[in-house]
């Protein structure tokens, strides 16, 4: 798949000495949804700002659509949209006028039909003549998306797009993102709601302390780093684990009435091993009356990679 964004050796050191980005290499493919995950202060917003022209890198290069952003930024940035984390929009402007104005900032001719289409797709058409300040938090965030889409970008950054909105509106945002991908828009998403990345992303990158820790296909990452956990309710308590069972990664819980399996690390074969475990239990004459099995979520993997920093 063609690359539309290529970042090499990107570093940003602020005047006080803080290194926000440290030799970052990242390639984004055309048409994908890429989720960039990391704790607060990891460098996500700085990286987005560098691509969108809001932050001047200390060193490194950024190429978008074949254009070097250091020397040929105007053409590249015309094709890039940004939905910022903060609600930094003109609160006194009516919705339709604010969105149309954003289109004009990129030198595009007025297109009322296009603006109408965007507002309708975001369920904002009925609010088109209301001032932004009168809208709910979720609707204000939709206005930010509408403004970012007004100039028809090919690459869209969504920096915490569902922060501060309720569950229903978050699901609505997910549907909107799916529609944008269907239209061929490439999306880079940062989020604290890791289930969003698990639901939507094709690939996942993890950034911490300004460094890219890992980039991989979501499914491959979950298969390689995930694990399986199973809790097996026993028909009668055990005081110790028999040798034939001890070869599995298990331990007794709940005064010997439950056997807990944790394994499959890096293999993706945990469920197969659980099946072997249950056969071994029966072969040893150990009855079980129930089993609860689950695989790691992307959030589990994220926390295991970053430890306490992941929830800081």
From TrEMBL:
| Record keyword Transport present | yes
Its domain of life? Bacteria
Domain ABC transporter residue range list: 5-234
> Does the keyword ATP-binding belong to this entry?
yes
MF terms (GO), sorted A to Z: ATP binding
What PROSITE patterns does the annotation carry?
Answer: ABC_TRANSPORTER_1 (PS00211), ABC_TRANSPORTER_2 (PS50893)
Q: Which Pfam families match?
A: ABC_tran
What keywords would UniProt list here?
ATP-binding, Nucleotide-binding, Transport
Query: What residue intervals traverse the membrane?
Result: none
Q: SMART domains of this UniProt entry?
A: AAA
Q: What InterPro entries does the record tag this protein with?
A: AAA+_ATPase, ABC_transporter-like_ATP-bd, ABC_transporter-like_CS, ABC_transporter_ATP-binding, P-loop_NTPase
PANTHER family assigned = ABC TRANSPORTER ATP-BINDING PROTEIN
Record's protein name: Multidrug ABC transporter ATP-binding protein
């Amino acid at each position: 798949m063609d690359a539309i964004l290529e970042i090499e050796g990107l570093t940003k050191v602020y005047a006080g000495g803080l290194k926000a980005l440290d030799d970052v290499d990242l390639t984004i493919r055309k048409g994908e949804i890429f989720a960039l995950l990391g704790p607060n202060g990891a460098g996500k917003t700085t990286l987005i700002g560098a691509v969108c022209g809001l932050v001047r890198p200390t060193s490194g290069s950024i190429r978008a659509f074949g254009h070097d952003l250091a020397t040929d930024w105007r053409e590249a940035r015309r094709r890039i949209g940004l939905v910022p984390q903060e609600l930094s929009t003109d609160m006194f402007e009516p919705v339709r006028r604010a969105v149309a104005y954003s289109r004009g900032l990129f030198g595009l001719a007025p297109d009322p039909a296009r603006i109408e289409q965007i507002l309708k797709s975001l369920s904002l058409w009925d609010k088109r003549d209301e001032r932004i300040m009168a809208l709910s938090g979720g609707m204000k965030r939709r206005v930010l998306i509408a403004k970012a889409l007004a100039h028809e970008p090919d690459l869209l950054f969504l920096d915490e797009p569902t922060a501060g909105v309720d569950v229903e509106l978050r699901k609505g945002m997910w549907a909107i993102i799916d529609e944008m991908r269907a239209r061929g828009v490439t999306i880079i998403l940062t989020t604290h709601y890791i289930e969003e990345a698990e639901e939507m992303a094709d690939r996942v990158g993890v950034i911490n302390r300004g460094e890219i820790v890992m980039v991989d296909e979501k499914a491959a990452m979950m298969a390689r780093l995930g694990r399986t956990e199973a809790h097996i309710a026993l028909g009668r308590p055990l005081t110790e684990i028999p040798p034939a069972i001890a070869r599995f990664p298990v331990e007794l819980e709940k005064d010997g009435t439950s056997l807990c399996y944790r394994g499959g690390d890096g293999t993706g074969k945990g469920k197969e091993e659980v099946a072997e475990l249950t056969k071994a239990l029966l072969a040893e004459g150990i009855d079980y009356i129930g089993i609860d099995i689950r695989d790691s979520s992307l959030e589990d993997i994220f926390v295991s990679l970053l430890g306490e920093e992941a929830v800081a």
